[in-house]
Write a structure and sequence with these properties.
With 418 residues, this protein is an alpha+beta fold. Helix content is 32%, strand content 11%. The protein has nine helices and eleven strands. Strands 10-9-8-11 form a four-stranded mixed β-sheet. The chain has a three-stranded antiparallel β-sheet with strand order 5-6-7, with no helix packed on it. The structure holds fe (ii) ion. The site of fe (ii) ion has 4 residues, from helix 5.
Length: 418
Amino acid sequence: MHTLQNLKKKYSEVRQGTEYLCKNISAEDHVVQPIEDVSPPKWHLGHSSWFFEVFILMPYMKAFKAYKPEYHFLFNSYYESMGDRILRANRGNLSRPASEEIYSYRKYIDAAMLAFMDTLNETDTKLIYLIELGLNHEQQHQELLVYDIKYILGNNPLFPAYSEKIPTTENPVIPASDKNEAIRLEEGVYSIGYQGNGFCFDHEREHHKVYINGAMIDKYPVLNGEYLEFIHSGAYEKFEFWLSEGWDYIQRNRIRAPLYWHRIDNTWWHYTLSGLQLLDENIPVSHVSYYEADAYARWKNKRLPTEAEWEVAALQEHEKIPGNANFLWAKNFECTALNGDNKLFGDVWEWTSSAFAAYPGYIQERGALGEYNGKFMINQMVLRGGSYATPADHIRFSYRNFFHSNKRWQVCGFRLAQ
Ligand SMILES: [Fe+2]
């Protein structure tokens, strides 16, 4: 739990961080929505402010006046309890309010939030929790902003760069022979889930026991160069490696490589936030669907780890989350080469074979905030470990991300188990 003093500091840092991410994109980049999953950056800027406005300021700050009540229709995402909202697919049709106006909205909310925090004291634990939730929510939107900006720029025929920084990936330190190392999990009963009195999302609870049959978890995630062998083996043309849904999915969408990969004159390139680059074979593969991760595992006669195996392996390997992991504010905006670290944290979210479902003892909150996670516990898979788009102070060992099996615009890769 934060003290009020550092909560105010964190509030300002998070809010500024979001705007920093949009600093180098154009006014036009702020508006477009090339596919339904990708929200316009200006919508993220508005929605993350709306969250503080409707869940904290309106119910709890006396004399607070809504900035513009009509914004509540524009910036509600999926909260049925918060009333009608614009269709998700129509977010990109909003030329108004102009981005400038949304930045003014943010300033208005920030001034109110900072004033509101001054009226709190340390015993207002419920309100402190709500503010932390708002900040964690905004950090999730920072990550989404990176995905969405990458999609907007990476699907533009000019392949514009977002950031000049190209991570140094030459001369990986890990020789191929060491790449096969594994983390051994002994058979036994372990505990996973959140334990402690800091912030966590409701679905990380309860801390509970799991039985693990004994497993070997690959020490490193699968790399682009390894994934290239999978492609060159013709695996995208062989139904025997694919889940039935996955086979339909790659046929229907004519998928033959990860998102952002391009084969130009027999050479593989990939779009990164530094622009179109020669495919870097030494960094973890990213932007593959669950179906592709699963097919790769079958092709290797291995499997994906369960989320329990992943968490137990992470707890076994690390006392705390490594400070040098490749998270958002390292500002690499891309995976980096193996350097001996197992990369359980950072670089790519790792698909697990676990469906997103309630842990034993899970209690869904009442009211609108109960809609945050609980209603998504259907047909989605859990991913673990955070990515180069995740703020380092947002992730935990017990953190459970979740996406549908066909999604791959998020920064997702995988490691194997057996
Ligand atoms: Fe949201």
